[in-house]
Design goal:
Helix content of chain B: 25-40%
Strand content of chain A: 15-25%
Radius of gyration of chain B: 23 Å
Oligomer: heterodimer
Distance between the termini of chain A: 16 Å
Largest sheet of chain A: 2 strands, antiparallel
Distance between the termini of chain B: 19 Å
Number of helices of chain B: 27
Number of helices of chain A: 2
Number of strands of chain B: 19
Helix content of chain A: 10-25%
Shape of chain B: globular
Structural class of chain A: alpha+beta
Strand content of chain B: 5-15%
Shape of chain A: globular
Strand order of the largest sheet of chain B: 2-1-6-3-4-5
Largest interface: A-B, 27 and 38 residues
CATH topology of chain A: Alpha-Beta Plaits
CATH architecture of chain A: 2-Layer Sandwich
Chain lengths: 76, 668
Amino acid sequence: MAAKQYPVINFEPCLSCQVCSDACPISCIELTLNGKVAGFDKWNNFFPVVDKAKCTGCGRCCDACPVEAIRMEAAS
Amino acid sequence: MGGVFMKSCMGYILEVDLTKGEIKRTKVPDEVYYNVLSGKGLGVWYCLKNIPADADPLGPDNVLGILSGALTGTGALLTGRWMLVGKSPLTGGWGDANCGGTFSPAIKHCGVDGIFFKGISEKPVYLYMDNKTCELRDASAYWGLDAVEAEEKLTADNYTIKKPVVAVIGTAGEKKSLMAGVVNAGGRIAARSGLGAVMGSKNLKAVVLAGNKPIPCADKQAMKELSKTLGAKIKGASVPDLPIGRLIGLGGYAMGMAPFNFPLDGSMANMLLKTWGTPMNTPMGSTSGDAPVKNWAGSRKDIPNATKTFNPDVLMKKEYRKYHCYSCALGCGSILDIRGNKYSKYDYTHKPEYETLNQLGNLLLNDDLDSILYMNELLNRAGLDSISVGGTIAYAIECFENGLIDESVTDGLHLTWGNTYAILALCQKIIDREGFGDILADGTRKAVERLGPETAQYAINVAGQELPAHDPRNDTSVGLHYMLEPAPGKHTIAMDLMYNAMSLCDFVSWAPPVKVHHKREDREATEQNALMTKANTCYSQLMDGMGACLYLEMMGVHTSHPAEHINAASGWNRDGEDYMRIGERIQTMRQQFNVKHGINPTDFKLPPRVLGFPPLKEGALKGVQLPNTDKQKSLHWKAFGWDPDTGVPLPETLEKLGINELLELEVS
């Protein structure tokens, strides 16, 4: 059986556009304060954070991301 | 007609009869999408067919439509706006408003492109919808709550699998204030046309959506390539790391002194919007002449602190975080931390937009920023249009200053220019419909009926819709669109500056070329100028069919070409000319709605003061007068194939655009 995969977000192209959090069928992605990544943004933009405990690995966020900033990877 | 299915739409709508408590999911003919897209196009198609000519806007026969855009959810950037449509209680004619936030994709996730409500519920209800359930639920526990409280409570109470998204009326909508809108995302409002009062009149508190169906796109990879290019351009746009907010006012002086609008690349605005959002225009507008001051009769000299008070860096310092609407790469919004505000009991507010800052600031000569931030939050929570509320308070102040009303009418309020405490108190009274606030709560046109015709000279509206904060004496186009629009008083159609930025001559062959426009002088009424207003109008309607944001429009067709995006989403292969005909069709149907409902388009006139009669004595707009607007209006109608004298769409135009045929189609 293949290992369960989770979304990994590349903050470099990420636009903070909420498409991934909207696409998640169980709302396990949020753009929160914890997602603020130093070094990538000077505009106070917040970035998506995945609740891995809740995530089912369905890949809908990865499919929806307009700029291909999400890839699915097996949990380490 | 092509009869080609649009692959980015769900193909269905929800029809809700609130009187009977019946809900139907019906299929929309493919030809409708092909001819008017979704969003405002689908909305006008449905309302034109289904609202009887004699319908009372606040009665059971009016229809309130809430719609998503044709490109929403396809991966196209800046296409997350949702639309409200219906018969406006403010004007008695066509009404529409649109809004960002996260509500637009939620509609499609429930498997429909729009939801249409008719009838009146006996008791307060809200609509709940997810993949399987669709029902009206008791809203008595939420009635009386402000929009933010109600949204939080409805979200928590309905959260099972997917976190619900909520559009809700505040207390103003419940009280049927004709300035009320519909709110989502903690205080973003579809505010114009008074459609929040229509929702309130139906006893419909909210729409709660928790569906998670995927939204289709014909060529997802092609769309991603377009979005990656556009996203990188927007992400890379940046102003230097200097404290330059206070220099913006000086930039406004320079713009004010320049006699021309020059051709500009629209994407230049991205860096300004990313940094400051629309408030960047507040100091610039008051110095350049764009921002009306003292109820349109003053100039920057009447409010000497304006550039300092409205320096957008002051707002930036309060920024807790940026706010992006759904699918937006820009993020022109912010959440501000307003703890320590000397009036507010709230800790956070959405950053006020330029319009709000000007209508509650310069227009009232109020330079107390804390009071504006507090009123911004109060109005968001009440679900009121800050443009109309500012315009109505300005009207009341001028009536008071000129002795037409006194303290016996104003409940003891000493309503003078810049009297912050009186302005705050009046704002609260309007929200509560209490005493003098009840007289003003339906906007300036109703207030004139209540306070007497001698006050009409201070009521700055077109056909009942209060004017937004862009002065036609500075930019003729914006004023023309205020009165050419079937839902009048819209500032989002175009300005000369925007026409140049959009470069529509590269989209359709018939749009006049980009050129240097003379400012502050009456536009010569020519057919070329009429084609310019026509092109802007059609483009704007097309964007509203797509669900696109004004700032996507402003980036211009070189930065983001709508035909490429719609083709990738829909699976069609159509060109700019064809898509602009969609805009033409939507606009003609909006005008047709007004004609059907007995609205005379020739009654849409700018108030004399706004045309420079009498002229301003000081400031950037000193002496400017615009006597030619009626001639330009006539040429615009002619360019659309409408009667140049009456504004009524001609039979051959309806035939040419296939509108009669379209109106014969039915949902099934």
